[in-house]
């Protein structure tokens, strides 16, 4: 390991690591992007030149040390270079979520006072221009894709390649300045500022230093034995801390190659073409792929289908054990090897997982069946628990100790303690510096000794030492009779059904629980197609009696399993509705990372909740929706309320009397 | 013949050049039916020119005259300063005119990529034999042409369906593939026959965006037929209005909108 990262020790900034990579791995690929149907490639030496030209261009444009440079767009090498170039000139890169609407961008750009914005294309440029008047510090915008931009007023607008050309032209003049600025960077200078999506209130700017990023990258790379030969596919939002650590932090520390897909729609094809060795995806990507595989197998020939199910059943039995290095009989091993040749291998290859050494999922709970499916195929899929303020890593699952229901042991150099109320606290080299311009929030999150409150409630499991997360600490409440109310616990059980995309449980302070449910259009739509059920819209499908019946049976199953837990048996769902629209970030009902904003949902659908509790059979409602371009409209619907079967309350209560 | 040939700049900063195509007193008959009666109009370089009119007004016939598919009995077609002789459609295509069809005319069993590649046919010089062997010149030629096709695919954002057979695509995307094939021919003049027919609002918005981008980015002159008045008025620089084979209006969208004959043709007029 030490040899692998030779020369990286003591490098205290991304530009310094870049220089090391350009010298040591000069001809190894650093970035690839598919464009015009071909994978374009840049070596580390070329990358260093591109970034230098851009950095010189930025100085030429007037970027000063300490300025904020916002970066908005889909994952492209040029935008990753922008982050490093911004740091090289002493500025702070601030990546933004590209699907944010203009108002959200206005808040973030105004809050950090960005003087410069680098955007991917016309769509993003238009949003910035729309809010330009509200931004007092904004001066210049640089765009990548010139398409449609020709007619724009170019007094404050610049094409990316022109900035680089100007930088190259001014090389002799400015190179001294650039070197001087780069030499000032150390472990304490700011590496990046990332805005948290914020399940409550306005986004907060999390300031991460070079120490945070490089130490976290180093520790996690050593933990998973990442080398210079890894290939990753970068498709998750650049504004998300995970992408920054994987595609920038670890990539620069190890010197491995970052591959960018052609467009968001081609991600699955590109995944297959690249065959990453190290992969990260939120549970919904794995769920989506599994659903897809199952649907396609339904359409396959009888022989293939039988073979698939036969070997899959075998993999379920022994696959996980083989992966964990546990003892498995000779015959079973042989049969698994045969299955690998006939089914698992080709399947993994189709999915793009043929070369995976390490895969991670995080962000939300993953269904145990989905998790086990991938592991049984021999894909080393693991879970981790982290947050922006920790520079990702709080706990990770070591190889051989992987389970669906825990999030692993503390990551290297991370200390964890559990508070009196069950809340998890941590302290690590990755612990963030501060919330930008927000000392109160900083003080309330991070105490003087450096302990950070996660806001999640959890406990360490006896024996294994693995951490288990129950729920957001503030969401855990009490029912009217005093028993525990943990909505996430029940919602996750519901969401493990492919038909259910999202669920929201209510019941804090009440005598019983009710729920909102969103159907998954892909899964339910496919089911409807196969059963000849016609529907014209999402709303119609969501209200179809047969769909309601299916969801009711899922809810009954969940109630049954909830009833088995004596602590949480009160959380069974008495009544529910299938919502007429998907909960959406554009309407403020979810965060950009797709976490439900409970309070907002509760306020917005107040009428439906009332109807759920007062016993009515139907409820008519009007809901305001925001379209992608920011216009508003409304949908009207009459929703059927469904009663679910509730299992008898836990036995222990009777016994106690 | 190029009278008002001086170029001008539109409000949104595009340069409209002199006349590239002129239709002079065109009359087209099918037996006893007069489809087009003595129509004259011109198309200027770099503009978006719309031909509108109620059903059966002769719009598609007009487009077919421009594309060389129909030969008018009377009248002259002038293209780039010279009178066009009677030509076969492929000869017209070689002059730099490409088109899309009202009823999609793609090769259903072929992939999107292959369909778009057919748009390059006129640029391919190697013979059947060397293409079958795919050696030397043929290979180089295909690579060069593929690059242009890939740029078009990127431009119209259809990368994700590159390898999908056309038959499996939804209607809106097929229309876009057809546009891609026409663009692959790098036309000077692009003819679009009802590019937005049967589309929903979102698809129409996308298509409008692409049409404007094509015009803006490549400077392609575009002549289009369209039913949706809103779209036509937003997109085009000048509009020709036809009714029963005759031209009843010609001018900017605003002029046409206020033309009494046009209003009558579209809204009907009382006969008392």
Automatic annotation (TrEMBL), chain A:
Domain AMP-dependent synthetase/ligase: 18-436
Keyword Ligase included in the entry's annotation: yes
EC number: 6.2.1.3
Pfam families: AMP-binding, AMP-binding_C_3
UniProt key word Nucleotide-binding: yes
PROSITE patterns xrefs: AMP_BINDING
A single Gene Ontology CC term: membrane
The entry's keywords: ATP-binding, Ligase, Nucleotide-binding
Residues in the signal sequence: none
Gene Ontology molecular function, alphabetical: ATP binding; long-chain fatty acid-CoA ligase activity
UniProt-recorded name of the protein: Long-chain-fatty-acid--CoA ligase FadD15
Organism of derivation: Leisingera aquaemixtae
Species classification: Bacteria, Pseudomonadati, Pseudomonadota, Alphaproteobacteria, Rhodobacterales
UniProtKB/TrEMBL annotation, chain B:
Matches recorded under SUPFAM superfamilies: P-loop containing nucleoside triphosphate hydrolases
Domain of life: Bacteria
Enzyme Commission numbers on file: 3.6.3.25
GO cellular component: plasma membrane
UniProt GO molecular function: ATP binding; ATP hydrolysis activity
Domain annotation ABC transporter: ranges: 21-269
Keywords tagged on the record: ATP-binding, Hydrolase, Nucleotide-binding, Transport
Gene3D superfamilies documented for this protein: P-loop containing nucleotide triphosphate hydrolases
Name of the featured protein: ABC transporter ATP-binding protein
Organism of provenance: Leisingera aquaemixtae
Gene: cysA_4
């Amino acid at each position: 390991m030490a040899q692998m990262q030779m020369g990286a020790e003591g490098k205290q900034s991304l530009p310094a690591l870049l220089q090391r990579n350009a010298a040591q791995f000069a001809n190894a690929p650093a970035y690839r992007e598919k464009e015009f149907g071909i994978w374009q490639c840049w070596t580390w030496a070329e990358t260093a030149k591109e970034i230098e030209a851009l950095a010189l261009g930025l100085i030429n444009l007037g970027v000063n040390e300490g300025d904020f440079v916002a970066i908005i767009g889909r994952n492209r090498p040029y935008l990753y270079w922008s982050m490093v170039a911004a740091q090289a000139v002493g500025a702070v890169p601030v990546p933004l979520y590209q699907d944010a609407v203009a108002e959200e961008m206005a808040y973030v750009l105004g809050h950090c006072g960005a003087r410069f914005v680098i955007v991917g294309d016309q769509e993003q440029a238009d949003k910035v221009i729309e809010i330009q008047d509200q931004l007092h510090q904004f001066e210049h915008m640089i765009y990548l894709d010139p398409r449609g931009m020709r007619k724009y007023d170019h007094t404050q607008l610049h094409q990316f390649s022109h900035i680089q050309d100007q930088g190259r032209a001014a090389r002799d003049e400015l190179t001294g300045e650039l070197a001087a600025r780069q030499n000032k960077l150390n472990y304490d200078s700011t590496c990046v500022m990332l805005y948290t999506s914020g399940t409550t209130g306005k986004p907060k700017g999390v300031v991460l230093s070079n120490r945070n990023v490089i130490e976290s990258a180093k520790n996690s790379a050593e933990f998973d034995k990442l080398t210079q030969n890894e290939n990753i596919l970068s498709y998750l939002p650049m504004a998300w801390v995970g992408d920054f650590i994987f595609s920038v932090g670890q990539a620069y520390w190890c010197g491995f190659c970052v591959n960018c897909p052609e467009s968001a729609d081609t991600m699955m094809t590109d995944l297959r073409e690249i065959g990453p060795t190290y992969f990260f995806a939120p549970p919904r990507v794995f769920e989506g792929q599994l659903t897809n595989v199952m649907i396609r197998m339904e359409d396959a020939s009888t022989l293939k289908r039988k073979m698939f199910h036969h070997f899959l059943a075998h993999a379920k039995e022994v696959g996980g054990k083989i992966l964990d290095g546990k003892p498995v009989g000779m015959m079973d091993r042989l049969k698994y090897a045969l299955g690998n040749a006939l089914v698992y291998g080709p399947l993994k290859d189709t999915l793009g997982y043929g070369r995976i050494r390490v895969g991670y999922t995080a962000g939300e709970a993953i269904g145990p069946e989905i998790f086990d499916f991938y592991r049984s195929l021999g894909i080393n899929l693991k879970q981790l628990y982290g947050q922006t303020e920790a520079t990702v890593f709080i706990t990770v699952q070591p190889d051989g100790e992987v389970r669906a229901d825990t999030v692993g042991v503390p990551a290297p150099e991370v200390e964890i303690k559990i508070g009196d109320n069950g809340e998890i606290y941590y302290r690590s080299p990755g612990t963030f510096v501060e919330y930008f311009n927000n000392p109160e929030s900083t003080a309330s999150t991070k105490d003087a000794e450096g302990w950070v409150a996660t806001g999640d409630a959890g406990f360490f499991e006896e024996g294994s030492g693995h951490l288990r997360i129950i729920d957001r600490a503030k969401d855990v409440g009490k029912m009217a009779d005093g028993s525990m109310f943990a909505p996430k616990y029940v919602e996750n059980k519901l969401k493990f059904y492919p038909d259910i995309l999202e669920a929201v449980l209510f019941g804090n302070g009440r005598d019983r629980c009710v729920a909102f449910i969103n159907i998954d259009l892909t899964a339910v739509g496919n089911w409807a197609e196969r059963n000849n059920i016609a529907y014209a819209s999402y709303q119609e499908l969501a209200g179809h009696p047969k769909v309601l019946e299916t969801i009711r049976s899922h809810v009954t199953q969940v109630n049954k399993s909830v009833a088995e837990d004596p602590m949480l048996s009160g959380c069974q769902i008495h009544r529910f509705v299938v919502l007429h629209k998907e909960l959406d970030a554009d309407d403020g009902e979810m965060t950009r990372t797709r976490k439900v904003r409970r309070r907002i949902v509760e306020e917005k659908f107040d009428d439906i909740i009332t109807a759920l509790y007062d016993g009515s059979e139907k409820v008519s409602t009007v809901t305001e929706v925001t379209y992608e371009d920011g216009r508003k409209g409304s949908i009207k619907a009459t929703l059927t309320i469904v009663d679910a079967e509730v299992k008898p309350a836990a036995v222990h209560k009777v016994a106690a009397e | 013949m190029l009278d008002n040939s001086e170029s001008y700049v539109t409000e949104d900063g595009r340069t409209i050049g002199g006349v590239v195509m002129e239709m002079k007193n065109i009359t087209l008959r099918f037996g006893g039916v007069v489809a087009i009666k003595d129509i004259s109009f011109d198309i200027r370089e770099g503009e978006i020119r719309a031909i509108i009119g109620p059903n059966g007004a002769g719009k598609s016939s007009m487009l077919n005259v421009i594309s060389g598919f129909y030969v008018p009995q009377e009248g002259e077609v002038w293209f780039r300063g010279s009178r066009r002789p009677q030509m076969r459609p492929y000869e017209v295509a070689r002059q730099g005119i490409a088109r899309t069809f009202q009823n999609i005319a793609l090769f259903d069993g072929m992939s999107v990529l292959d369909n778009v590649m057919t748009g390059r046919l006129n640029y391919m010089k190697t013979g059947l034999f060397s293409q079958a062997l795919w050696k030397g010149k043929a290979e180089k030629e295909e690579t060069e042409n593929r690059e242009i096709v890939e740029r078009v695919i990127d431009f119209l954002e259809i990368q994700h369906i590159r390898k999908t057979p056309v038959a499996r695509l939804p209607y809106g995307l097929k229309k876009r593939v057809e546009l891609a094939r026409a663009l692959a021919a790098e036309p000077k003049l692009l003819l679009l026959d009802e590019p937005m027919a049967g589309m929903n609002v979102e698809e129409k918005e996308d298509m409008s965006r692409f049409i404007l981008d094509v015009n803006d980015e490549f400077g392609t002159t575009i002549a289009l037929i369209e039913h949706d008045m809103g779209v036509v008025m937003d997109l085009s620089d000048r509009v020709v209005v036809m009714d029963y084979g005759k031209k009843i209006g010609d001018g900017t969208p605003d002029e046409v909108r206020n033309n009494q004959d046009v209003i009558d043709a579209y809204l009907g007029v009382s006969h008392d």
